[in-house]
Amino acid sequence: MQYFHQARYGNAGGAHTAKPLYVMKHDNRVYTTAYHPQGEGSKAIFALHGNKLYATAHHPDGESPHALYEIRGDKVHTTEHHPDHNPTSHIFELKKQL
Predict the structure, then answer these.
(1) Contact 9, 1 (CB under 8 A)
(2) Hey, is 92 helix, strand or coil?
(3) How many domains does the chain have?
(4) Residue 86, SS3?
């Protein structure tokens, strides 16, 4: 499993040490964790195809034919289809453990 930790917290560029908001399980699907504001989810809200994450039908905004995130190494970046897209930074860092 890989955990999605926010890349920034409090100040720009500062490391985020709080608990992860999302977890990608061995089925290549992403679920919310107990630390997410909406609580732990039993249904995947994102699905991994290649190195891109697509919203599933269980996502609050519904399924999307366009990838919202792209994984590059241990960083998760928004794509041009994400409402908060920033091409110069990443939004999450992937870690294997809590």
Answers:
(1) no
(2) strand
(3) 1
(4) coil
Domain span at residue 11 reads 1-98
Task: Please report, as a single letter, which amino acid is at residue 69.
Answer: Y
* Neighbouring residues of 86: CB distance < 8 A, sequence distance ≥ 6: 78
Phi-psi region of 12 (alpha: psi -120 to 50; beta: other; left: phi over 0): beta
Nearest-5° Cα angle at 59, 86 to 72: 40
19/83 Cα distance (integer angstroms)? 24
Q: pLDDT (tens digit, 9 = 90+) per residue, 36-80? A: 888 999 999 999 999 999 999 999 999 999 999 999 999 999 999
Predicted local distance difference test score (pLDDT) of residue 12: 46
Q: Residue 76 and residue 82: Cα distance in Å, rounded?
A: 12
Using one digit for the tens of pLDDT, what is the confidence trace for 1-25? 999 988 875 444 444 456 889 999 9
